Amino acid sequence: MTFCQDTHVSLTYASTLTEEDIAILFSNSGETKEIIEILEIAQKNKATTLAITKFGKSHLAMNSDLVLYTSSPEIYKRSGAMSSRIAQLILNDILFTAIANRDYENVEELLEVSYESCSSHRLTD
């Protein structure tokens, strides 16, 4: 699993996807140019695409293989960005938990290893 907030790095990741991969694309509007470009590259490489976006007929929703919709009120521009981000983070956590539970014994070991890899950076345990 790979994640990056940098668009240029995300574009390079998308260019290496295969039909065995899934690209999960987050965009509240579903109309963000960079996300659509990543979607198109992932599709060109035959990766499955999963959009996490607000309900509606956005470019991202209509062109992804799978769509999980979020709903969040947008009263003010900043509070709207916050509520949509929280809704998408909740879906992200649900997906992680569902996938982890499919092979929990293996995932539990990996979670322990990742936890321990940072232990030297903690002031207290």
Describe the protein in words.
With 125 residues, the protein is of the alpha/beta class. The chain has a single domain, classed as Glucose-6-phosphate isomerase like protein, domain 1 (Rossmann fold, 3-Layer(aba) Sandwich), CATH 3.40.50. It has five helices and three strands. A three-stranded parallel sheet has the order 1-2-3. Strand 1, helix 2 and strand 2 form a beta-alpha-beta unit. Helix 1 runs parallel beside helix 2.
List the defining traits of the structure above.
125 residues; alpha/beta; Rossmann fold; 5 helices
What is shown here, in short?
The protein is α/β, with parallel strands linked by helices and 125 residues long.
Specify the CATH class.
Answer: Alpha Beta
Overall structural domain count: 1
Share of residues in strands: 5-15%
Mean pLDDT: 89
Number of separate strands: 3
Q: Return Rg in Å.
A: 17 Å
Structural class: alpha/beta
Per DSSP, the total helix count is 5
Please give the CATH architecture. 3-Layer(aba) Sandwich
CATH fold-level label: Rossmann fold
Order of SSEs, N→C?
HEHEHEHH
Strand arrangement in the largest pleated sheet: 1-2-3
Q: State the helical fraction.
A: 40-55%
Query: Low-confidence parts lasting 5 or more residues at pLDDT below 50?
Result: none
Which homologous superfamily in CATH is the superfamily? Answer: Glucose-6-phosphate isomerase like protein, domain 1
Largest sheet: 3 strands, parallel
Q: Span between N and C termini?
A: 28 Å
Q: Can you tell me the overall shape?
A: globular
Pfam family, one: SIS
GO molecular function, one term: DNA-binding transcription factor activity
InterPro entries: RpiR-like, RpiR-like_SIS, SIS_dom, SIS_dom_sf
Domain SIS: 1-105
